[in-house]
Amino acid sequence: MSDAGSIPVVETFHSLQGEGHHYGRSAFFIRLAGCNVGCTWCDTKHSWPMANHAKQDVDALALQATQAKDAGAAFVVITGGEPLHHNLQPLTDALDRSCGLPIHLETSGVDQLSGRFDWVTLSPKRHRPPQQALLSRCDELKVVVLDTDDVSFAHAMANDTSTATHLLVQPVWDSETAQELAIHHVKQHPRWRLSLQNHKFLQIR
């Protein structure tokens, strides 16, 4: 198996999309290892060390996605970690060849886009702003809110997106202050929507 045909994987699973524009839909998740963005409130810090997770062959991952499709998955989500630390072209090529499901990407946008995607969710971070190309390309801008500076950052990021981009703010889990800020923001700005981590409320993956 060549390096180009394998990629470090934390986990794969079939569940419901828990947040963002497509929340509540059946999806197959491929969580890739490695992240140097370093958000203090991240709930997948176990995915950060790339060396801790074994590589998997992209065709084997595509086969898992095909099996999830047969079980009802409506799309594939490539997430992390930060998936764009890797060249995703071999993985999306394998998914296109094998399962034919729409492919979604969840990224902070710190690296150049690679691979072919039907939907890009950009979740930019104030301490590591995204590449301009990702702001222009994203289908969904989902900004995690902890304090008022994050709300200001959300506005700044939205200014560089397409008029067709869906705009969402998502409060940091278990922070009443963040929830109040996000709700107030959405009430005052009708183009924005509130995103919640519904999978945590439901206690599913």
State the end-to-end distance.
Answer: 30 Å
What's the order of the H and E elements? EEEHEHEEHEHEHEH
Major sheet: arrangement of strands: 3-1-2-4-5-6-7-8-9
Top-tier CATH class: Alpha Beta
Rg (C-alpha, Å)? 16 Å
List low-confidence stretches.
none
Specify the number of helices: 6
Helix content: 25-40%
Word description of this protein:
- This protein is 28% helix and 24% strand.
- The chain contains six helices and nine strands, in the order E-E-E-H-E-H-E-E-H-E-H-E-H-E-H.
- Helix 3 links the parallel strand 6 and strand 7.
- Helix 1 packs across helix 2.
- The protein starts with 5 loop residues before the first strand and ends with a helix.
Any key phrases for this structure?
205 residues, alpha/beta, TIM Barrel, 9-stranded mixed beta sheet, 6 helices, 9 strands, 28% helix
Q: What secondary-structure arrangement, pairings included, does this model have?
A:
Blueprint: E1 6-16, E2 26-32, E3 55-57, H1 58-70, E4 75-79, H2 89-98, E5 103-107, E6 119-122, H3 132-137, E7 140-145, H4 148-158, E8 166-171, H5 176-188, E9 192-194, H6 198-202
